[in-house]
Amino acid sequence: MQLDEATLIGIAEPLEFLAVTIAVIILAYLALEHKDIVYAAFFFGLMAAVVSGYFLFLEAPFVAGMQIAVYTGGISALIVFGVLLLPRSQDSSLETFPSLEKSRIGKLIAAAVTALSAALALTYPGVWQTAPSYAGIESEGANYFLEELAVWLWQDHGILIQIVGLIILTTLVGTIAIMRMEKAERLIPLKSDFGIEVIDLEKEDDHESDQEVSSSSEVEDQ
Amino acid sequence: MMPLYAYVLVAFILVGMGAYGMMVKRNLIRILIGAEIMGNGVLIALIAFAMYGPTAGVYTFAGQGLVVLVISVFAAHTALAMVLMLMYHRRYGHVDLGKVVILEDEHFD
């Protein structure tokens, strides 16, 4: 018995989807639970790469490429470098809250977030739909969506790309500015009545000026 | 084609796992990884709803354009979070959320 192409695709796609889903869940679990945080960062990068498989299933190859470039190539590399620059982050005792009660509250909140997102998603009117709305235009060819998206992004909605560029530029300038804030390291942290850390610049300046006055008066006495 | 709820199911499993990472872990880097996993779930949901929605023929590219914008915002917030962590580590010498002054128990007693 010979199966036609449509039947084969019909059998293969759920299996591919299942394989990608299992890989994503296992990699996400390892990214969260692996004892060594450097490996966890690598597992996260791998998970982000596998997630792009969903975008390929959904006929969004440009987003899949961007996911691999930004998440696997950018963000996971940033996290790995961050781990290397923060030696204390590799302490395995930081993995869970020491108190069981806090850990339970955390799990409860996580379960509530999951339940809420599930409730919101499953009450969406068209969520039980079995075929995508673009099914009618698939015959246009494999590159149809890529070409149309390129036209949509670069001709009709070029402002969107400019906003993306502006966001990344602002972040770059902001991160460099924060890294150069050496003055912040020298400030003395204080605890207010509410436990919130505040930095009282005036008091610090007064303290410094008092010290200067006392030292100058000592010189005069001598 | 896979039904829409299959993608939605995966999306909220990832959101739940990310929320677990953000709520239960104390290591700031692990919390950041949790936030990114949540973000991946959101991206899957966005693309799936854009492709399966009733107006997909018209707004398919709007959905993809939105996801491109969201990915760049995620990259920006990760870079900013990492720099803030570096500054925090440089100042206090740890990245332990349990020791962050604002969240200490004594202030809520």
What would your notes on this structure say?
The complex is a heterodimer of chains A (222) and B (109). Chain A has 222 residues and is mainly α. Chain A contains eight helices and two strands, in the order αααααααββα. A two-stranded antiparallel sheet of chain A has the order 1-2. In chain A, β1 (190-191) and β2 (197-198) form a beta hairpin. In chain A, α1 (5-33) runs antiparallel to α2. By secondary structure, chain B is mainly alpha-helical. Chain B has one domain (4-99): Helix Hairpins (Orthogonal Bundle), CATH 1.10.287. Chain B has helices spanning 4-24, 28-52, 56-92. The radius of gyration of chain B is 18 Å and the shape is elongated. Classes of the chains: A mainly alpha (222), B mainly alpha (109). At the A-B interface, α1, α2, α3, α4 and α5 of A face α1, α2 and α3 of B.
How are the SSEs ordered, and which strands pair?
The complex is a heterodimer of chains A (222) and B (109).
Chain A: H1 5-33, H2 37-57, H3 61-85, H4 100-122, H5 144-156, H6 158-179, H7 183-186, E1 190-191, E2 197-198, H8 201-221
Antiparallel strand pairs in A: 1-2
Helix pairs in contact in A: 1-2, 2-3
Chain B: H1 4-24, H2 28-52, H3 56-92
Distance between the termini of chain B: 55 Å
Structural class of chain B, by secondary structure, is: mainly alpha
Identify the CATH class of chain B: Mainly Alpha
How many helices of chain A? 8
Helix and strand element order of chain B: HHH
Radius of gyration computed on alpha carbons of chain B = 18 Å
How would you describe the shape of chain A?
globular
- Could you tell me which chain pair has the largest interface and how many residues each side has? A-B, 98 and 87 residues
Low-confidence stretches of chain A: none
Q: How are strands sequenced across the largest beta sheet of chain A?
A: 1-2
Indicate the mean pLDDT of chain A.
Answer: 77
Mean pLDDT across every amino acid position of chain B: 82
> Could you estimate the helical fraction of the residues of chain B in percent?
over 70%
The proportion of residues forming helix of chain A, as a percent range, comes to over 70%
Instruction: Describe the global form of chain B.
Output: elongated
Return Rg of chain A in Å: 27 Å
Instruction: Summarize the biggest pleated sheet of chain A.
Output: 2 strands, antiparallel
